[in-house]
From TrEMBL:
This is IS607 family transposase. Residues 62-182 form the Resolvase/invertase-type recombinase catalytic domain. Residues 3-55 form the HTH merR-type domain. InterPro entries: DNA-bd_dom_put_sf, IS607_transposase-like, MerR-type_HTH_dom, Recombinase/Transposase-rel, Recombinase_CS, Resolv_N, Resolvase-like_N_sf, Transpos_IS607. CDD domains: SR_IS607_transposase_like (cd03769). PROSITE patterns: HTH_MERR_2, RECOMBINASES_1, RECOMBINASES_3. The active site is at S70 (o-(5'-phospho-dna)-serine intermediate). Gene3D superfamilies: 1.10.1660.10, 1.10.287.2170, Resolvase, N-terminal catalytic domain (3.40.50.1390). Pfam families: MerR_1, Resolvase. One of its GO terms (molecular function) is DNA binding. GO terms for biological process: DNA integration; regulation of DNA-templated transcription.
């Protein structure tokens, strides 16, 4: 089992070290164990439990609209995508921010995507809204979905029409050829 020092645990749950000390003192949240030297350690199980409670309360979490296109040639498409996502979120009454990227769906090292993942793991995101599932990431969507689930973030897909296997295969092959031809 993984254990976190009081500072690491405080950072992961968005609280201060002093708050955790106060919670220990008043019995609200006791550390898993305390070393002979007095260092408090919290378990992964405690973190998961806390995150589960926090995800239900949704305190100070944001809704993020994420938009992506594959190349600079598609900048107009990106602007339309952003407008569609904004219109949808305004209609739903969401308070939101937009994060956008220009880059391949199979390139995981995009500034916006990395910013989004950092925000998720720092418990800052309640919901991600994307126009299409593959706008978030083309391969490995389930991995992103799993990370979101662990940190109490949901993914809302505006146009969730299922593509045929042939359509997906053709799009994936085009994406791969595009990446390797650059």
């Amino acid at each position: 089992m993984k254990y976190y020092s009081i500072g690491e645990f405080a950072n992961k749950i968005g609280k201060t070290v002093q708050t955790l000390r106060n919670w220990d003192k008043n019995g609200s949240l006791k550390p898993h164990h305390i070393t002979e030297g007095g260092t408090r350690y919290y378990s992964q199980e405690q973190l998961n439990h806390f995150l589960g409670l926090k995800s239900k309360t949704k305190l100070n979490k944001k809704t993020i609209g994420y938009c992506r296109v594959s190349s600079h040639k598609q900048k107009d498409d990106l602007e339309r995508q952003i407008e569609n996502v904004k219109t949808y979120m305004y209609a739903k009454g969401y308070q939101f921010e937009i994060i956008s990227d220009i880059g391949s769906g199979i390139n995981y090292n995009k500034k916006g995507l990395n910013q989004l993942i950092d925000m998720i793991t720092n418990l800052e995101v309640d919901k991600i809204v994307v126009l299409y599932k593959d706008r978030l990431i083309r391969f490995g969507y389930e991995l992103i979905e799993n990370i979101c689930e662990k940190y109490g973030t949901t993914i809302e897909i505006i146009d969730n029409t299922e593509k045929t296997e042939e359509q997906e295969l053709v799009e994936d092959l085009i994406q791969i050829v595009t990446v390797f031809s650059c």
